[in-house]
Amino acid sequence: MKLQSELSSRLHRRRRVSVAARAIVLACGLGAARAALANEKMVDTVADVLTWVVIVMVPVIGIAVFWLVHVLPERFAEKRHHPQTSAITTLCLLSLVFGGLLWPFAWLWAFTKPVGYKIAYGTDKHETFFREMGEKAKGGGLLHDEIEHLKSELDAMADRGALPPGLKQLRAELAQLQAAPGTAVPAPSQAAGGNA
Predict the structure, then answer these.
(1) C-alpha distances in angstroms, 56 versus 16, 46, 59?
(2) What is 101-162 written as a DSSP string?
């Protein structure tokens, strides 16, 4: 009998534990279900916002980055005073139309030294380079040797007959600058820092 009473008490304890465990699981399940419903609305809101960000912002950012990368050869050509900057710009724009297939050619062209252009026209610099250097020379920002080099390049271009009217005027102004006494252009000994 003892054995029977002991078995029945164990069984009764197991049932109580089982009922308590079921009650806890059920309570947690309902709480989790309520939390899931509350979180579900928040998750839906976050998903809606992310959807609009992806639909609107990602293409805009992608197009902007695509554009910025495609104008890099043009920027480098301008910075390096490449004489064919306008052609490189055109190739960059054409590359946009053709989905970027021409972009590597524009990149290579922007970084190549225009040897053929120098043979034909006597210089490998764009006209804006000479204008900028002329402004520096007029302001006293160039050394005597630099002005001589600039003038010799302009002379070489003039000998080939490839000197635009604006650069002809600059050439004449440089000649006057060198001939005028008391100009702001430093002499070679002053530029070296020596006291004569």
Answers:
(1) 58, 15, 6
(2) TTHHHHHHHHHS--HHHHHHHS-SS-HHHHHHHHHHHHTT-S-HHHHHHHHHHHHHHHHTT-
For residue 99 the two structure tokens come to 């989905």
The rounded percent of the chain whose pLDDT value lies above 90 is: 19
Residue boundaries of the structural domains of the chain: 71-112, 121-188
User: What span, in angstroms and rounded, lies between the C-alpha atoms of 71 and 156?
Assistant: 32
3-state secondary structure of 80: coil
Report d(CA 178, CA 144) in Å as an integer.
8
pTM score over 0.85: no
75 neighbors 111 (Cβ within 8 angstroms): no
Give the Cα separation of 61 and 115 in Å (integer).
Answer: 39
Summarize pLDDT for 74-106 with one digit per residue, the tens.
Answer: 999 999 889 888 999 999 999 988 988 999 999
Contact 127, 117 (CB under 8 A): no
User: What is the maximum alpha-carbon separation in the chain?
Assistant: 134
Per the CB < 8 A criterion, the answer to whether 154 and 163 are in contact is: yes
pLDDT score of 185 more than 50: no
Distance of CA 38 to the CA centre of its chain: 44
7-32 per-position pLDDT tens digit = 666 666 666 656 656 666 556 655 55
